[in-house]
Amino acid sequence: MKAxxxxxxxxxxxxxxxxxxxFVSKIFELKEGDIxxxxxxxxxxxxxxxxxxxxxxxxxxGPPQNPGRDPHHxxxxxxxxYFGVTLHKMSKKVDDGKILNFIRFKIKKDWxxxxxxxxxxxxxxxxxxxxxxxxxxGKINTINKNYKWKKYKKRKRSDILKLIKSNPNLRKQKLFLxxxxxxx
Length: 184
Fold this sequence. Notes:
Blueprint (H helix, E strand, L loop, with lengths): L2 E5 L1 H10 L14 E7 L7 H4 L2 E8 L10 H7 L4 E8 L9 E8 L6 H25 L19 H10 L7 H7 L4
Parallel strand pairs: 1-2, 2-3
Antiparallel strand pairs: 3-4, 4-5
């Protein structure tokens, strides 16, 4: 099977170096095919485009408790002790498909969202390397059937912006500044 991989600009070079060319037919182009792999892409892929692929996978830079956009910011804001990265099948809804694998790790107290995101992306690359051959060969299975998306609100970028606009006093709070300083 051939795969298409979409990712952010900051990961293209590293993924290109790692991926064996024989596996990838349309690297970094969103065209129809057997497999679509989204790695740290950060954008919602329209259903119309998703339907062009038989198998769709997402490497999500957040744990099942943090579905949606910017999970690293929310984890710091809510003082979560643990974070992680998730491999799941993509479905019509964002961060809703079956979870196939997950890596969990502890958040250090002095971490900012940017440090957490960078660390999570390193773990996500480990998850990618552990699973890419099984994805390409069609042998990917759920590692642990207990992995489920938590029924928390799926956050959007607009949620952060609403929070900032709704309470100007938040900008003076240390935790808020630590969590969302790059938005203003």
